[in-house]
Amino acid sequence: MVKQVDKQDEFKKELSNAGDRLVVVDFFAVWCGPCKQVAPIYEKLAEKHKNTIFLKVDVDINKEVAQSERITQMPTFNLYKNGKKISSQSDISQLEGLINKHGVAERPAEPLPTLDTAEQYKEEGNKKFKSQDFEGALVMYTRAIEKNPSEHTLYTNRAATYLQLKQYKEAAADATKATEIDPKFAKGWFRLGQSNLQMGKMLEAKLSLQKALDITPNDKAVAAELNNLQKITTYVEGGQNNLSQNKNEEALNQFNLALQLAPQSTALKLLRGRALIAVGKFSDAAKEAGIVLRDFDPSSSDAYFVRGKALYYDGSVENGLKHVNEALRMDPDNQACLQFRKQLKSIENAKEDGNKSFKSGDYQDAIDKYAQAVQIDPLNKVLNSTIYCNLSTAATKQGKHEDSVKYANSAIDLNPNNTKAYVRRADSNTTLGNHEDAMRDYQKACELDEGNASFKSKLRESQKAYKKAKRKDYYKILGIDKNADEDAIKKAYRKKALEWHPDKFQEEDEKKKAEEMFKDIGEAVSVLSDAQKRRRYDSGVDLEDMDSCGHGGGFGDVDVNDIFRMFMGGGMGGGGGMRFSTGGMGGMGGGRRGGGFGGGFPF
């Protein structure tokens, strides 16, 4: 028996529990042609080597295991013992030799009994069926049919076996053969109804079961199955109706209820898969369709489509498209596939139209077309994330940086790994002066694309701008332009110093504010009137760094009164004066008119 493992923890547990038993793992993908070809051979090896543990890992579902085991091609067969990999092989013809080399010798299989009559094979098949050896029962019933191909009961027995093995097409074919041999054989119609039900052919199932009930009106099993079918039909119709109205959670609930009554129905599983896609549970939908392909019907075009659509929406674009193309190869008239392809084409065309407008410089038209594109299929998160990123870029070109940030937010919400969207948002936030936000986004972009030198450079510039933004803006304090010359600086200082000299204020709160402003004004002129200090300040050097530098840098002990006297052409009278440093503020002496200012600048 081959067991499929869908989670990394489960994979590790299987290896750990196996101990020194040999474990063989088939790493496969449902879209992989060679994987399909070798699957029956792998199953037979599992039947033959019962002392060996056989596992399967779908690389699309269990990406973590595939990555940790460094799987680069499918199929790949890894052999493990005591939790460690001991061999790897991609050629299945070499696999049995490795199993014999590393595994425990198997007992030779018991030979199949050689019987004389169909009845004997039938009885042997019945024994195996009762013991749940359905593979063995299948062999016996097939031998019986070969002995007596016109016996209708043999076909219904084999149909029952196929049902247990989840091979519903084969079960339906055998049940049909039984009804052709004997149209009045109720069990044949019953098995046909069961098979059709599991395949989702509700109308055919109802007709078959009704015929069985017409032949045997008192058959409780048939009546119960018909009642079951009616409930399933009600749930399915309700679910499909809800899907059409975008009531997706309600639809999923209806399909779940239907599956409780027919848990092996491939059609119901795929309906549930569609509902899972509609509610955004893409990985669950891909897994559901993968189970149908693996365990029920490897040639189901619908299963390939549901799985492909789910993988595409989940971000595995290339794999998803492979599945969709495979579905169309199997059934070129698959309407769901054709509609999906058409939808993808519509989005791509709308995006391309937007790109053309963008390249021609018509940014508003580009925005309009991109906005139309994201409305076509809201579930298409990966593609829509790219388009929102384009919207962000177009808004930037218009100078609408708030809009640019908004569009980038949408892009990141849809795809948290959209590196360009983080950079677009950071660029606009930089322009808006939101340096802390920009710094975070550049950091994220560097994490997503570690080798990108441009992103690292942007991050460094952003960090510098963030530090710079936290400093006092001396140009703003003096009310001057950043290109102001020395005369403009002096003139601005005189104006601001007179405006904010603490002696002008009597109220305690006002005086305190004035003292702070007067100090800042002094610091500003101290830096901006010194060419070297100003150059360092403009380059983004921290105040503390300026203060700690030698060669005249800093203003750790700035006397704003000295600065005032220097610029006003006189001294400052009264009291002990006012002396400030970056560590605190001294007292204030002097008074108004005559008592405080000797430089000829009375208030």
TrEMBL record:
Pfam families: DnaJ, Thioredoxin, TPR_16, TPR_8. Residues 1-131 form the Thioredoxin domain. Keywords: Repeat, TPR repeat. This is DnaJ homolog subfamily C member 10. Residues 473-541 form the J domain. GO terms for biological process: response to stress. CDD domains: DnaJ, TRX_family. TPR repeats lie at residues 118-151, 152-185, 186-219, 232-265, 301-334, 347-380, 385-418, 419-452.
